[in-house]
Automatic annotation (TrEMBL), chains A, B:
InterPro entries: GH123_cat. Residues 1-25 are annotated as: Disordered. It comes from Oryza meridionalis. It comes from the Eukaryota. This is Glycoside hydrolase 123 catalytic domain-containing protein. Residues 1-19 have a biased composition (Polar residues). Residues 393-611 form the Glycoside hydrolase 123 catalytic domain.
Length: 672, 672
């Protein structure tokens, strides 16, 4: 009978003999005592655990994880090791600190609180990366159970609550300014178990005690208040009465420890750090080269105007509306992203614009000239309401902008994924209008197939490849979905072969719902390297730009702190790269996702690859990507972090040697 | 090309036309505005949300779930409905309240706090089920990400923190005492969003303020203390000085709101409940019959003595050790479980005993006579050290016990799953010894296969079935693993056919590592009905008792609050039905798992089925189990809760009608 086979579950139960058991060799006693932390109550004292008196290493596990790891609540502890990072100037490098309680030291609900404190990172020459500015800490918060939201930790109150049996993670980012001196920077992060806030509160006054105190104080004031006293007796009586009242106040339980501490207070913070904190040593090598301020590859990302208006209850065109857009624009710029605001119309008509102010407004110059902006969308206002006023205003915009130096960064994005010849006709007619204003206008069109209803080509893929023939000269930026390629990188050459670079035509790509796992994309639940690989793919395939449809496209809500719901029909995380800060705290600062940080890392990787290729040629760059195992194709790329550091280290070392052999000075990759 | 097919992901993206969108019909705008809570900031006021001024229904979702639901953090909200429960006397019925924030109203880290308050349940006749005694609230806490631990909620401080985007659950249990009047009991549970503790703390005194206050009070006492005053002037001066100091104290920011509230304090709790709380109406019908105090089916469950000694750092035989065992014994009795303590020796030798005190100790009588105990293990001390003293003490134990009325509940459990004839020989030799002390001794032996090295039968299953032939008369309780049966219920008759009921032989069963999904067992991550179905299976198969190897068999630790780790090689949750309270709070009370509660429910279901069968016959009982869809076989049983209530309701109604037609009075199922 099959259930009697030795391979079955119950038979396995008795065959665990390689595990040295304490209690029995099998069955109920299996492997008891195998995982023995070695911690004993005697070392923690009896009864309640006082975290200020015990080394935090006895209370929690602390270990580091790379930025590409999704540290889940079930993540198992690893040994704590020195963290070594490498970064160029104008680069952000991140890693994570994972924390998991070994015991519970809080008295209710949570396992315990920890305080995380970080020193500045210092070089031997005395240069610094300052905590709060160049070094930031964020708490990794799950969305749909997947670690994703990075909620800033208040540097003045850096307490994190740990739950029993759950691993928590802190995201540490090092931002190296452009002017930072190269060299080795060292610092430490102290993680100390502390009494939970709710418990130290136990020591302070409860509401009722506080009110009692208030009444007694008022009473005492009535007693002692200056007046005409009838007699010495009255005064003695009043003094005695006041004294009694005061003694009663002092007897409140809340004042007990003031007595005991004799005013010396608790152990100083520094003593705690030295005596009981877990110390994580952190080294950062800052290379002697600088990532260009202007991203080499324009990555244009949409921000839904509609979502901002709804969630923050802002009326279009009001001051609050302009402030909110401005805030979002500037916040996203730090991610080497060129934002555009957007609003969808009928049939995927889209109004896309980078600057909410007209071209003659001082803010327009500030926006368009920002060196961190690699490309900007000029609003084609008539797309939504084709009035004369809208047309006139558009013509005026173009006339102002086309004379500016930044005009080469401009593009028009009119329609999202046109599907038929009718829609193509609209694009062509707008193009004719725009080219009458400026002959060198650039129109971007996204698509994943040829127009239906045309006999462009016998096969679907050929029809897709032939789109430039239909849209020329009405589109200059042919932006295609990576999903079309699937894992067939070789199809890239078919797409590129149809383009006319001599006419200024470019090939850009995008991801949205597709491609799906195992190809690179930014959906929640994909591997960290899979998120980062989107940009490796772009660089390897050779596109000259990238578009992403939405960064804040979660479901409609009319309250800033409303729960984030992903939209129906989209894979979780699609179109949502950051969250409103109000959901997590009283802060109005957007909360980045780990995916957005990995996009930044990918954008930085592109600069490394470009730097390397500029010295040794693109073929060598491709060889480096392949031989380090970072990226070989849409379904073959690094699953773990190791290869990434190898590749970056290789680029940096080559750069250092080459800079040393040629000029002996640091290199600036691009102008700024 | 395959990527151009209309069934692919990107094509789907444009075909979502059944969803009425607000923004565009497809693509980036897909379905925006489809899920619109309708909540608007205007109704919540601008800026920070004050939960005392807004109806909690605007701030969070509240809905009920049955006790067999595993309410995960991703559980989606449902409509809030009136909760209707049915219970006999001496029964516990439970359900869950699920909570999920719609918005965040706290200012840091969490979405917000809620307060859960429950009224007594009252009948129209004025009878009551009192909160805290008959009505309890516990917070469902995940273990390895699965909702399992039921951490008691302090009735005086019933605050739960909700996290953004996460569903939390509260386990509500109604315990109907034996003497409760039958009838309809009604009550309400009020769930109100409140300010988080950490925030109201902002209003109370900080440590430094408190210390300042302390110094000022001491100073003031010095000023006012009775003494011989040199003059009236001195007294006036002292009074003035005291008054000034007191005014300075009253000016502390912490006392500002005492002033403003003018002593009236906050809105009264009751007002909050009436005005802003979500109200969950709760009805319980208490039937006019009583579950027997003594479980009809003895379910003997192991408690590892070793685990208790290690985790609570108790030396064997000390007062603390006896207290801990006593505490565990009495705590488990409430689950209709007959506990035995156990310690494993070599080769699955096991020392099992229900009472840690010798038979002549007053506690022994208290333990063994407890009507809630259906069976008890008598320690066979020589199993671990076969000294003369141990043998003599054993003989004395048996001599005392065999004359007691409770002797019929006794059994010896000597060996866990003997595997070869050598081990069988040990059992036989002990049996010979024991039967020389008492001829009617009952020995329980667990097994899942025949002895290796014997030529008992040609097939594995036949060898298993023939075990009674080898162990007779050295075993009376043949306790076999459900895993052996697999889904072949029909094999039961083969097992039973080999037994000699005339010699007092019984068939019991057990589950441990096996059987695995989809069969019933108590592993973490199985469905709630799958947990409950273990007892349905036992009743349907007709075994007369049940054994479970361990209730506290987690990994070794030497600190009460150490993290719970499941043992290597065992499925998560196997052998662990409750947790040490110290892991979750300062309480020493064990924390039940949802699985333990479902075991109790299953044990209660057995009483319902037995009651029904005692009136209508076992065949009708089996038909009821089947026709309601509760349990048809090891891989066919209710996946959702509905059928359970139908079956229980049917039993109760039949019982009511039958009781009414015969005697008009309530029925007591069994003696106590």
């Amino acid at each position: 009978m099959e259930s009697g086979q030795p391979n079955s579950a119950a038979a396995d139960k008795t065959q665990n003999s390689s595990v040295p058991p304490v209690e029995g060799v099998a069955g109920g006693g299996t492997s008891y005592g195998w995982v023995d932390g070695g911690l004993q109550a005697s070392s923690l004292g009896n009864g309640a655990i006082d975290p200020t008196k015990i080394h935090s290493a006895d209370l929690l596990h602390v270990w580091s994880m790379p930025s590409t790891a999704n540290v889940s609540q079930q993540e198992a502890p690893r040994p704590l090791e020195h963290v070594n990072l490498l970064a160029a100037r104008n680069e952000r490098e991140s890693f994570q600190i994972a924390l998991r309680p070994k015991v519970s030291w809080a008295t209710s609900g949570i396992a315990g609180s920890v305080q995380v404190q970080c020193t500045d990172l210092c070089s031997s020459a005395g240069d610094r990366l300052v905590v709060g500015q160049s070094v930031t800490l964020r708490h990794v918060v799950p969305m749909l159970g997947v670690p994703d939201a990075l909620v800033p930790i208040d540097p003045l109150n850096s307490q994190i609550n740990l739950l029993p049996g759950e691993t928590s993670a802190i995201w540490v980012s090092l931002n190296v300014p452009c002017g930072q001196q190269p060299g080795l920077y060292e610092g430490e992060i102290f993680i100390s178990a502390v009494r939970a806030e709710a418990e130290s509160r136990g020591e302070s006054l409860t509401k009722s005690e506080r009110y009692q105190l208030y009444k007694e104080l008022r009473n005492c004031i009535d007693i002692t208040e200056p007046r005409d006293y009838s007699s010495s007796e009255e005064m003695v009586q009043r003094l005695t009465s006041a004294s009694t009242t005061l003694r009663r106040m002092l007897a409140l339980p809340s004042f007990q420890d003031c007595e005991e501490n004799n005013g010396l207070g608790d152990m100083m913070d520094e003593d705690i750090m030295n005596n009981v904190a877990v110390r994580l040593k952190l080294s950062l090598t800052v290379w002697d080269f600088t990532l260009p301020l202007t991203p080499s590859l324009p990555a244009v990302f949409g921000i839904s105007e509609t979502v901002i208006e709804d969630r923050f209850c802002l009326e279009h065109g009001t001051k609050g509306w302009y402030d909110a857009l401005d805030h979002h624009f500037r916040w996203l710029l730090q991610y080497r992203i060129s934002p555009f605001f957007c609003r969808w119309g009928d049939s995927m008509r889209i109004l896309a614009y980078t600057c909410p102010w007209p071209a003659d407004h001082p803010k327009a110059k500030e926006y368009y000239s920002d060196p961190r902006l690699a490309a900007y969308a000029v609003p084609y206002a008539p797309i939504l309401s084709s009035t004369d006023a809208a047309k006139n205003s558009l013509r005026r915009e173009v006339e102002i902008l086309k004379s500016e130096a930044h005009w080469s960064k401009s593009y028009f994005y009119l329609w999202d994924e046109p599907l038929n010849l009718e829609q193509y006709d609209v694009i062509c007619s707008i193009s004719n209008e725009l080219r009458s204003y400026a002959s060198d206008v650039r129109i971007l069109t996204t698509y994943y197939c040829g127009p239906s209803g045309s006999e462009l080509a016998p096969s679907t893929f050929e029809a897709f490849v032939k789109v430039p023939n239909v849209l020329r000269p009405h589109t200059q930026i042919f932006c295609t979905s990576e999903w079309v390629l699937g894992t067939r990188e070789d199809l890239v050459k078919d797409i590129v072969a149809e383009l006319r670079p001599d006419l200024g035509e470019e090939w850009w790509t995008y991801v949205c719902m597709g491609p799906s796992d195992p190809q690179p994309n930014w959906h929640l639940g994909m591997r960290g390297t899979q998120h980062r690989a989107v940009m490796w793919r772009v660089w390897k395939e050779g596109g000259t730009g990238f578009l992403y449809w939405g960064t804040n496209c979660y479901e409609k809500a009319m309250i800033p702190s409303a729960e984030i719901c992903f939209r129906r029909g989209l894979p979780p995380g699609d179109g949502v790269l950051f969250y409103p800060g109000e959901v997590f705290s009283s802060s109005h600062e957007p909360v980045a996702s780990t995916r957005l940080e990995r996009i930044l890392s990918g954008m930085q990787d592109i600069e490394y690859l470009k730097l390397y290729s500029s010295r040794y040629g693109r073929e060598e760059g491709l060889a480096l990507l392949e031989k380090t195992g970072v990226y070989l194709g849409p379904d073959r790329y690094a699953l773990d972090h190791g290869p990434i550091d190898v590749m970056r280290g290789e680029v940096a070392i080559q750069e250092k040697e080459s800079a040393y052999s040629t000029s002996g000075r640091g290199t600036m990759i691009a102008s700024h």
